[in-house]
Structures are given as C-alpha cells and as structure tokens.
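Data availability (excerpt). All sequences and predicted token strings are deposited with the supplementary files. A representative entry, S9 family peptidase, is shown inline so that the format can be inspected without opening the archive.
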Amino acid sequence: MRKLFYLMAFLALPAMVFAQKKTVTLDDFTKKGTFYAQSVYGLTSMNDGIHFTTLEEGSKIEKYEYKTGKKAGTIMDLKAIEDCPVTHMQGYELNADETKVLFYTNSEKIYRRSFRADYYIYDLVHKELSPLSENGKQQVASFSPNGEMVAFVRDNDLFLKKLKFGTESAITEDGEYNSIINGAPDWVYEEEFEFNKAYDWSPDSKEIAFIRFDESNVKEYSFPVYQGSNPTHEENALYPDQYRFKYPKAGEENAIVSVHVFNIKNRTTKTMDIGEETDIYIPRVRFTKTEGKLGVMKFNRHQNQFDLMIANTASGICNTIFTHRNDYFVDQNVLDNLQFLDDNKHFVYVGEMDGYNHIYIYTLAGAKVAQVTKGNWDVTKYLGYDVKKKLFYYEAAAKSPLQREVYAASADGKKKISFSKKEGTNRASFSKGFKYYINYFSNTTTPTLVTLHDGNGKLVRTLKDNADLKKRVEGFDLSPKKFFTFKTSEGVELNGWMVKPLNFDANKEYPLLMVQYSGPNSQQVLDNWSIGWEQYLASEGYMVACVDPRGTGARGEEFRKCTYLNLGEIESHDQIEAAKYFGSLPYVDASRIGIWGWSYGGYMTAMCLSKSDVFKMGIAVAPVTSYRYYDSIYTERYMRTPKENPKGYENCPMNLAENVKGRLFLIHGTADDNVHYQNTIEYVDRLVQAGIQFDMFSYTNRNHSIYGGNTRSHLYRMKADYIFRNL
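Structure token line:
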C-alpha cells in the first residue's frame, strides 16, 4: 500500500511540480512574433479635438469619441460605395473642413520613405468618388488648406488638381529621372533629412512653395537586379538588369537646390533668392502664418550653421532672421521641431545652445524671448504649443538617459507639468487643441501600455494593455534584462544592459555576445519593451550584453559629439573597454567574447576586430567599411569631406583589414541602396590580400533591411549557428 501511495504521488509530480516553462526559439521572433507587443496606430484627431478617425479592415474610416471610445459614425466605407473600383485603402487624410477624403492604394515603394500610389478623392457630402489622376501613379498628394485643390508629384514634376472643375495642370514641366526633381527630395535628402515631400501649401491656399533638385552632375551608383524571389523579377531570369540612381558620396557633388513659389491665380512661378552659394542644403520650406511669408531652412555644407530665412513670395527677397552656429554640427532634428506660432510673431526652436537640447522662443525678427526648458538633460522631441493654456509640450530624458517622460512647461519655465507616472519609456500623441492625449508606455518588464488621458493628465481609459502577451510571457523561461554602468580606464561612465544565461551559475564561466549599434545620437540601452534573440541565446547558455559608447544620445552635446571628425575611434575604444570589463567578471569566459552589429553596428564590429584581440568572433551585417563610400549628408555632418579630413577617413576597416583578429562573418544584401554592397566587396579584397580568413554571405536583391520571404529567418538562423560554432 505504501509503495502504491509513493507511486501515485510520483506520477502526480510532473503536473504539480515539474511543469516546465517554454524556452525561446528563433521562430518566436523571426516568424511567430511571440513577444511582439500590439499597439494603437493610425489615430487621426479631428478638428473638434474630441473625436478621432481610424482606418479599419482596409476599407473603412471610422469615427470614435476619445472620452468613451464609442463609435460616433462611419466616415467612409468602400464597400458601401456603388460600383466602387477600389477594394482597400492604405492611408488617408481629411481636408480642412472634413468634407473630403484623400486616400491611396496600390502603393509601390521607392526608397525608405517614398512611394508611388493610386490616389482617390471621396466627397463625403455628395458621395462621389473619383481618381486624383488617370495619367499614372502619384506621390505625396495633399489637400490645399481650403480643401478645394490637391497637389501631387508625378515623374519628378509637381501637379495641381482643382477639384471643383476636375482639371489637372502641371506646375513644373522639366522633371526628368536622374536629372531634375520638383517637389520631392532626391535619395540623399530623403534618407538623411528624413522626409519625402518637398513642397508646402500657403495657409490661404494661394501659393505652393517647392524645392527643385538639379542632380544632373551627381554621379550615379548602380547595382545588378537578379531574378530572385519575393518579389520575383521574371524579366531578369537570364540577364540581370542594372538599377541606377544618383547617390552623392562623401566629398562628391550634391544636387543643386533652389526654392520656388507658384502663384495659383496667376499661374506664375517665382524663384526665391536664397543666396549665391549653391553648395548648400535646403531640407525644408514651410510657410509662416503670415500671408506671403515663407520660411526657408538652410544648412551650409558642413552643417555647422543653420539659417532660418523668411522669403517674401511676391518679390523673392529672403532675409535671414536666425542663425545657429555650432562648433561641431547642427543636428537635423531641428528641422521638424521648428514651429511658427499662430500669433504671427514668434517661432519655437529646439537646439543645443547651452550644451543640451532645449526649447527656445524667438521673435520673427530673430530675438530670443525665452528659454523654456533648462537643465543637464535633453529634450528629445517637441510636441507643440497649447495656445489656451500657454504651455509647450515635449518629451525628454530628464530623469535618466535610459528613460523618456512627457512634460508641459510655460514660456518662463516656472510652470512645469509631468504627464508620466510610470518609469520607463513614455511618448505621447495629443489631439488637436490638446484636449486629450494617448500615452505609449513600456519598460523591460511591461509590454506596450496604451492609455488615453485628458489634457490634465487624468486617466480616461486603457486602449491596449497587452494582457494576452503578459500571460504568454509568463509561460516562457526568460532571463531578466539588467541595467548597469561601468567606468572605462579613462574614467568615462557608460550605460549597458546584460542578459545572463538561463539557470545561471555564478561559479561557471560563460561565453558572451556583445550587441551594439554605436552610431551618432543612437541608443540601444533603453528601458523599453524588447524581447529578441538575446533570450534565445540565453536559453542556449550564452550571456548577451549591450553598451552605448560615447557618441550616443540623451547625454548632452559633449558626450554626443565627441566623435566628431574621427568616427569609429572612440566608439570602438569604448566597446573594447566594455569587452575587457566583461572579461574581468568571474562568470564570463574572457577567451570567448563576440560582437555583432548591423549597419553602423557592422562597421563597429569590423573596427573592433581590427583594434584589439579581445574578440574571438564578430558578425558584421551591411557594414560601412570606408566612409568614402557613404553619402555626403550623413558622412560630412560628422567627418567633413575626405579632402578636409583625410586622417579621419583613413581610420576605417578597409585600411585596417590586415589587423583583423578573431573570426569575421560579413553579411550583405546585393541591392542595398543605402550602405552599398561595394563596402563588403572591396573590404573582402583587402582581407584576401592580407591573408585574413573570414566568412561571407550575400542575400540576393535584398536592400539594407534584408527581408522578404524567408530571408530574415534564414539570416538569424545563420547568425546563431555561426555563434555556436565560433564562440
């Protein structure tokens, strides 16, 4: 009887005691999205500030109340339109009085932010649907402020559609592929100044200002396009095609830009006098609130001087009202943080005038009125100005570089409101009039929590709590991400995180993989929700760690810009110091430390293997191997030109190939329009001639993101196997 009792008790143990949690697999994040946190996307505030619209099922634009979440109506439903030629929408906008919808479908991606699509207009009052144009796909279509017209770009020319008459007319006629672009940026502007629309409507709908890009003298870069798959190019089955586009590399000729204003009534175009110097950048044009006054934002080629000019659109005369000079460079983030206020007297500028990123108010004559925020911390995003409450809203890393909070402050800085009650990463999206805002919060242990608040910060309701994901996570055996700091031999304190192997035993030594990006003003060490392949590696007995070196963000200008003119040197030094620090820990096997990264992180991997023998292996995905190969705007911002700074450019993986220690794995997409495949191919030759053994893999027709079909899954499986073999 006693034996039977023990037997029964033993059989019951697996259910009660030995129930095991799952371990993370590669498929969990490359295919299944097991730890992907859902969020709330595509909410567009309506004019009243108490309703919003959202695109649902790809065919409906629904209207909801912010306060209750109740549906207030359907703005538009493609399925309800008789004989509708369109089955789905990919994006939309309402005109100013919310009586018309401009939406697009059948988009074709061009580069990172640009695409062509079929645009349609739906009149909500008369229930009429019509194509924007029947003469080919369009780009960056937008309503005029009065809602009576739409501007768009097609085949490098700017067009105007008058809705009342249904007429389409060309504003420009000289657009030509790889030569002249009107109203849309060229490749390098789009990539590095982060926009895809290079025109702006005047508030009174009488004028359109646009930037013209003459890239005739910009040199072409080309790469072969094979048949491949996902997508398949059948026309290239036997003979690969060549894709050619204008790409100005460091020190080479840029497009010559000019600013023009089209008067709709007179159908005349006036060129704005932005000065005789043509080797400049015009990354934005934006009308002020005053009729006939256009704001023109200008950088010099070194990007260490930013000028705000006000153009008289009738005469073309431009006056520079504000200049910001910097010993290093003026970051491009100033562009979208600049706001002309509705009083027609002031503008907001977010800059580093006191060594940290802060909010300033200036008159339209260029006189400083106030510094809204102060302190040894950075404003990371400007959110806008509430006219009624006289408050400026912003996101900042005021408590820690690892966190983000949402605040509001008065112009004199005496009144400051914090809207963030939870420690981690917060960001906010305010309704028109700042009556409500949606807060997006997460930290290392909390998946994205989306909550709706009133303008005073009071919680109204929870929109998304990811409760299912929380429950799912509880079923997995995960190693917690722990933050830490350490000091380098030079006394520099760096931030990092570490994930230890599952079933960690402090008496054992473990191999360590360092994850990093390390690029200017970037951050990988943040208190946010992110479960990736570090958990898979932890389940396989590896430690994974990440350190943000000098040059990264949210720690003030001196920390952020100390890499100026010498990219790669300080960052690689800090990563090597981090590796030595890890190697000094009793539970890390100092002889088995690896490092990997993508893009700038790939560049950093190659630099680290050439600067030290502390790494046993490294994986460099889509790496820059010489900044002579990279684009002008990004590279010269940090390095100036090769002619001005030859020593800075010489300090690169290409010239250090013979010094590589440890096993190096190079991975690149053959159709990378950003960090060209040329970087890896030329580096390979240097490695070969230096007698360095390495490994390499190319992905057919893949761009800088390396995805499509099974590609991403294959990439991570290959990287994991490489780590298992070499670390």
